[in-house]
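User: Some background: our group keeps a shared notebook of sequences we're curious about, and every so often someone picks one and asks for a predicted structure to add to the entry. Today it's my turn. The entry only has the sequence so far, pasted here. Could you supply the structure so I can complete it?
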Amino acid sequence: METPPGQPEVAGDAELIARVRNGDLEAYGELYARHHHAAERMARQLVPANDADDLASDAFAKVLDALRAGGGPDISFRAYLLTTVRRVHVDRIRSGKKVQSTDDIASYEREPETFDDPTVTGFESGAAAKAFASLPERWQAVLWHTEVEGEKPAAIAPLLGLTANGVSALAYRAREGLRQAYLQQHLADVAGDRCRWTTERLGAYVRGGLTKRENRNVREHLDDCAKCTAVYLELVEVNSALPALLAPALLGTAGLGYLAAASGAKVGLVGFVVTGWKKVTENSTRTAVGAGAVVVVAIAAVLAAMALTGNDKPQAAIDKPPTQQPTQPPGQKPTAPPVNPTAKPPATKPPASNPTTAPTTAPTTAPTQPSPTPTPSATTPVPTPTPTTPTPTPTKPTPTTPVLDEALVTISMPSGGGSPANRETAAAAAGGIRFVITIKTPAANANPVVIGLKYGGELDWPLTGNPPGWTCAAAAGTCTASNPAAPAPLPVTFDAPTGGSAAERTFTVSAKTGRLYDDDSATVKAAPSTDENLLKILDGKADPDVHHRIITVAPRTDRTKVTLKLSYGSALEWPIAAKPAGWTCSSRTRTCTASNPDKPAPLPANFDVPDDSSTAARTFTVAATADLVSDTDTEVLPAVQQDESLLQILTPTPQTDPNPFVYNRFLKVNGAAGRKVTLDISWGRNLVFLPSWDSGWTCERTTDIRRATCWTSNYKKPLNSEWNAWLPGSGSNNALSVHARVGGREDTDTAQIPPTSSRR
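Assistant: Of course. Here's the predicted structure to add to the notebook entry:
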């Protein structure tokens, strides 16, 4: 079994049993810890509570002896241990003492079905118990823990050395194997060819694997054959009431109390059997009430009587099956029972003497069979014969038992367009996923056909108005066919879900007509889709030097992951801070993942204002993915903006001129205190830019093209630039030009050297 990282590896029961056989008593201690509570719970059904621990300990000792001797279970430790508890208890009763010491380990190696316990003889001789005993031990173990103990796959996984998914898959195969083994047990007892034909197909009938004609033949035979109906009901019970079948077969009548104690329900034997029968008749949509129900109820009644009277041996009536009508051979119709002839009225005894006078009134109704009438006497009146009404011939009652017809309703996707997965994806892209519900009723069906639709939380009512041939009610979730004999196909279209579990994306269609019923389910595949409302890019605070943006993702429950992917042009840089609140980001992969997918926090993104470059270089894109939903937004950021008030070229006065032998010009940048400032300076051929030694500024010159760049990361004061002029003039040869840049603002100014005024 795969163990999650960081957790210690857990050995399964099979591995621990093997280690015990090799002499590892610590492994048996682990088995004791896992199953001791179950053994005590079983013991408390057999002995008083203060003796339960003693009985459980004796059972553990017997199992240990069996394992050391090379016997015992290989996998199914729990069922073997509980059976041993029962055997130890029965042996105590027989021996008449508390503990029976024996060196005969083989006596505890008997299979459950061969153990002589009269209280469960009726169960152990049943086909279900025999079928269970014929299964591989691995299948028996998973059926015991899942069906009888009612444990979850995650709890069973450590015992069997599997993953939770592996346990579920194994349980599915085991249940199917039990059903097949059960049918094989019954085939040996089938006498008639017609019954054999039906019994061989009951497994496929339950699973919906027969043709329409075979379905009808099986239904008709079940209506007339009580024995095959009982087999069908018990087969359903194998699927839906395994605890009520298997627990008594292995643990006796105490198994019923064991199950009640395990579930925490305070019910007795009678309550448990009734509960088991209700599970068969109510929870399973595949259960029909027929002659087989008499058998199950009879068993329940006898078990209830045993529990109330304390008898260990069941009444003789349990061995007598209920009277059944003979089944018809293939090709013959069942004959009506004989009609009893009408009874004759008793003959009238003649009087002692002949009458002298005729009776004054004649009988009002003549007898059915006339008999000699003696002459009445004058004093003895003739008794009036009792009229007799002919007994009507009994008519066969109309069957009312609900019958499952696996072919009644089917759900399919429209044909064409490649595989079902491709068709679902294409349908989702077109705005919905379409299914077709088909109802196949018997020929000339006149009973109303009604279907009900139920669907998970990720789906909505899939119909608009009344489709052709149907009348639908969205509030009730039902549709009624206009033509019961041939219902029209019913197309339904679900909006493509964008997430949710399989249960939330599953819909079920149940159909009923007359006494036929069926249901079918389908799961709508969650397909990728686009939601324009998923992602928004909002403007942040106003700042001429930084583009502040806030990225938001719409909230939604039951998400598993939300990811943002950023891409941007060459004039931009990674805009996310080192550790933004609620996000985990990587500048290398340019991605961010939300810590809370259901409600992602707003994500700030701050871009420096790009240079005056191309549109592509100033564009950024954010792609958001939330499970199967995606959205993309793009924005082109403005380049640097012109600000005419940003730069000033100032000429000093004689009092403030730092050097009277050169031309000084102060380059002042407004509103840039503490910011990074860049000055690009160019001049004409009659001018010379002297090296600048101004503190806080750094300048680089390019002499061949008369250009220099000066910058400071922390602007405090204007740059004092010094110039020489070779020749006077007023044209471009004596002009200087300065371009200033601060964040997202820029400005350009020019000046002449020497100036037209007398000031240097």
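Suggested note for the entry: Residues 1-8, 108-125, 265-382 have pLDDT under 50 and may be disordered. Residues 211 and 426 are 32 Å apart (CA to CA).
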